[in-house]
Each structure stands twice: as C-alpha cells, then as structure tokens.
Amino acid sequence: MDYAQWIKSSYPELKIASRADIPALVKMAKASTKYLRFIVGIVVIVSILLPVNILLTSIGFVPFQDLFFWFCLILVLFLSNVITSILEQYIIKYQLKKIIRYKLC
After folding, report:
1. Largest CB tally within 10 Å, which of 3, 5, 46, 67?
2. Are 53 and 2 in contact (CB under 8 A)?
3. What is the pLDDT of residues 10-35, one digit of tens each?
C-alpha cells in the first residue's frame, strides 16, 4: 500500500510538509509496529491453520498425503496471508494516525 499517498489524502494540512518527512513517518510507523505485526501474522496463521487441519484430519483426510488436503492447506495459507495483510495495513495506518496527531499538536 502507498502510505505516503494515503497520508496526503487523509491529512491535507500535511501537503506543505517536505517530501522527506512523509517517508520518514511511514518508516517510523513500520519500525514501531514490527513486532506487533509479526505476532498478528503468527496468530492469524495458527488460528486458521490449526482448526482446518483438525477438521480435515477428523473427516478422514491423511495430513500431507491427500491432494485435497494440500489444496486446503494452500488455500488456508493464502487466506491467512490476505487477512494478515489487511490487519498489517490497519495497524500501520493506526500508528501513522498517532504519530501525525502527536506531530500536529
């Protein structure tokens, strides 16, 4: 996602800020949320992968041997990746809002 463009559209009063300030704000927001985004990614993958794995095993699919199991595994990982990306964007936007609010006051 282009956070610089999002900042410019969400905070028009920052348009007069220099071009170097906005990437620095984005870099600061990403750095300060690095561990939180990592934990959220792990939690999302585990919270989706484990129930699906248990469900498929209880239905009778042998883990990592049936083609359907592999298809479901790839689908779950793709879905987890999409959800993680959405949550990461939300986290970074929230942190950017906090940083900008602090800078404007």
Report:
1. 3
2. no
3. 887 776 566 678 888 899 999 999 99
